[in-house]
Amino acid sequence: MTLNGKTALITGSTSGIGLGIAHGLAAAGANVILNGFGDAQALLADFARHGVKVGHHGANVSHPSEIEAMFAYAAAEFGGVDILVNNAGIQHVAAVEDFPVERWDAIIAINLSAVFHATRLALPGMRQRDWGRIVNIASVHGLVGSTGKAAYVAAKHGVIGLTKVVGLETAKTGVTCNAICPGWVLTPLVQQQIDDRAAKGVDPQQARQDLLAEKQPSLEFVTPEQLGELVLFLCGEGGSQVRGAAWNMDGGWLAQ
User: Fold this and answer.
1) In 3D, which of 166, 163, 175 has the Cα closest to residue 137?
2) Looking at the annotation, which residues are catalytic?
3) Per the UniProt entry, what are the Gene Ontology biological process annotations, in alphabetical order (predicted)?
4) In angstroms, rounded to a whole number, what is the distance separating the alpha carbons of residues 59 and 43?
5) Phi and psi (nearest 5°) for 45?
6) Which CA distances in Å does 19 have to 13, 16, 35, 225?
7) How far apart are CA 226 and CA 249, in angstroms?
8) Sign, CA torsion 152/153/155/159
């Protein structure tokens, strides 16, 4: 498939899942706007191999005003956003009664509210062009719960609810909105959980396998590249009637 002439904005795309998805979209011909922290110049140089226009905006998506500035940049430099991938996310693990209020607020702001703000800003242009793709990177934790992850689970459940509403509101248009729900992906967030286990005296490789064995029957991590392939499908004609879906890619997690 080709996405020549389309522009994709991927939040949280300087590492992990977002970076893998961004590379997949660029390889398919889409111009790409990266978002996040880190060495932006090195990333832009790396994307040059795709032969597409690439930009970077460092918006902190916990602040609506910075999301608005990012969309203004997209309009001025790229003519708007055709494909929005809401990927940025953070995590904190603690029991509800011990959960720091500021961490709750930060997770809701980045993992849920930012999805709303980016979506509301993307929709007018997509409706005007009668074509658009919104892909929300939710989580299997948008469909099931786990102890210690109250804010993350609440936010991801909210993302799936928002996805359904936008899918319904755009059902008679050329715009689609769907959520992808990964299981364990070896991102910095998940690596931190492995490191926390290893810090308690568990062999790092054993900590990795134990984490997978608790939830993911395949005993393999989902890769950012695999998630990127699913995003490409949703962006293509084959995905044009997938609307408001929560599509899990989880190594069998939810099949149990």
Assistant:
1) 163
2) 152
3) monocarboxylic acid metabolic process
4) 16
5) -65, -40
6) 4, 6, 9, 9
7) 9
8) positive
| β-strand pairing of 132-137 with 83-86 | parallel
Structure tokens at 105: 């607020």
Rounded Cα distance between 39 and 45, Å, is 10
The label of the residue with tokens 């979506």 reads: 119
Looking at residue 1, its pLDDT comes to: 72
User: What is the pTM (predicted TM-score) of this model?
Assistant: 0.94
Please state the φ and ψ torsions of residue 138, each to the nearest 5 degrees: -85, -120
Q: Please state the separation of Cα 239 from the chain's center in Å.
A: 18
Q: Which residues of the chain have pLDDT under 50?
A: none
Q: State residue 17's pLDDT score.
A: 95
Domain parsing of the chain, residue ranges: 7-183+223-248, 184-221
Tokens at 91, concatenated: 């995590």
Residue type, 37: F
Give 143's contacts (C-beta < 8 A, 6+ positions apart): 157, 160, 181, 246, 248, 254
User: 116 Cβ partners below 8 Å, 6+ apart?
Assistant: 162
Taking each helix axis from N to C end, the angle separating 101-108 and 150-169, rounded to the nearest 10 degrees, works out to: 20
Q: C-alpha distances in angstroms, 212 versus 63, 183, 194, 216, 222? A: 34, 9, 10, 5, 11
Q: What is the CATH number of domain 7-183+223-248?
A: 3.40.50.720
Query: What local confidence, expressed as pLDDT, does residue 193 receive?
Result: 86
Residue 37 contacts by C-beta under 8 Å, 6 or more apart in sequence? 14, 58
For 98-157, how does the pLDDT look when each residue is reduced to its tens digit (9 = 90+)?
999 999 999 999 999 999 999 999 999 999 999 999 999 999 999 999 999 999 999 999
* Residue 187 Cα to chain centre, angstroms: 12
